[in-house]
Each structure stands twice: as structure tokens, then as C-alpha cells.
Design a protein that fits this description.
With 69 residues, the chain is mainly beta. It has a domain at 4-49. The protein has strands at residues 4-5, 16-21, 27-31, 36-40, 47-49. Strands 1-5-4-3-2 form a 5-stranded antiparallel beta sheet, with no helix packed on it. It starts with a strand and ends in a 20-residue tail after the last strand. This is NHL repeat-containing protein. It comes from Streptomyces pakalii.
């Protein structure tokens, strides 16, 4: 399932908990205050990663063989 593109009307990242990256170089940010994980791909853009039931993420782990959240 692909993430939802984030546009100018969407929330800013607030209270980032931690950072992680995947093997392709994308950066993942745990957005603690907005209950989401934000993905910043190498080629630009920003996506909110769909994770059901996420509350105040404080840490991330990205498996080396697959994209994870």
C-alpha cells in the first residue's frame, strides 16, 4: 500500500521522535505529535506511511531486506 502524498495543506512534522533510513536511502521520521511516520524518498517528495493504530511513535526500525515501519 503506497503512502499518501503530503501537500502544502497537510500538517508539519512536530516533535520528531527518531530517524531511520532504508537500503534505498529514504529517510523515515517518527512524528510523535501527529501520530504518524513520514517518509522522505531520495528523489524528493514526502509521504505519510500508512500504519494503523499508531500513537505517538518514539522509535523506528527499518529491516535491511525490506521497507518496514
Amino acid at each position: 500500500m503506497a503512502g499518501r502524498p503530503v501537500g502544502a495543506r497537510c500538517r508539519r512534522i512536530g516533535g520528531g521522535g527518531s530517524l531511520s533510513s532504508d537500503p534505498a536511502g529514504a529517510l523515515y521520521i517518527a512524528d510523535f505529535n501527529n501520530d504518524r511516520v513520514v517518509k522522505l524518498p531520495v528523489r524528493g517528495g514526502r509521504r505519510t506511511v500508512p500504519v494503523a493504530g499508531l500513537r505517538a511513535p518514539a522509535g523506528l526500525a527499518i529491516p535491511s531486506e525490506h521497507a518496514g515501519y
